[in-house]
Design a protein that fits this description.
Length: 163
């Protein structure tokens, strides 16, 4: 699965005529290419993730939030998904401000060795700042995950308002 800071527009199989054929063959099988319609971004804000992800999606009043993780970890993302939707709804209500025009979708991706990094529409968090299981994880982790999500989502508001 490919993840970008914009919604995917079209997905196709890599065929034998593609310039990506050596990559496909080197990976030992077939794969798909997803094309994204991404607005112009400064190079430091461009981001993407490639991996064997599963996803969970939830809608807030203004946004679609998707959390991505490996099969073995997807069950630990529900807290992050629920809190992200609540935080975005609070931003929309409290600040009377919607990120929807600037960020038609918001994706959250675990990344090893990353504390937290936001780009327009795509947030990378370390697994330690993203994964939480109610009843299994320490209580202080719930607060840590919620704080990190709020911080990264608030940076999207700050970055949008600067322009």
């Amino acid at each position: 699965m490919a993840v970008s800071n914009s919604p995917g527009q079209r997905t196709s199989d890599v065929n034998s005529e593609s310039i990506l054929r050596p990559l496909r063959d080197g990976l030992g099988g077939s794969f798909r290419v997803t094309k994204f319609d991404t607005p112009a971004l400064p190079i430091h804000a461009f981001a993407f993730a490639i991996g064997r992800f599963r996803q969970k999606t939830k809608n807030s009043t203004q946004h679609t939030v998707t959390v991505y993780a490996r099969d073995s970890d997807i069950g630990m993302t529900q807290h992050a998904l629920d809190r992200s939707v609540e935080i975005l709804d609070h931003i929309n209500t409290y600040l009377n401000y919607s990120l929807k025009s600037a960020h038609p979708k918001i994706g959250i991706v675990p990344a090893p060795n990353v504390g937290g990094y936001s780009t327009p529409g795509l947030i990378f968090l370390s697994e330690a700042n993203l994964f939480y299981q109610d009843g299994k994880s320490p209580a202080e982790l719930e607060e840590k995950v919620t704080f990190e999500l709020a911080y990264q989502l608030a940076k999207l508001v700050k970055n949008k308002k600067k322009k």
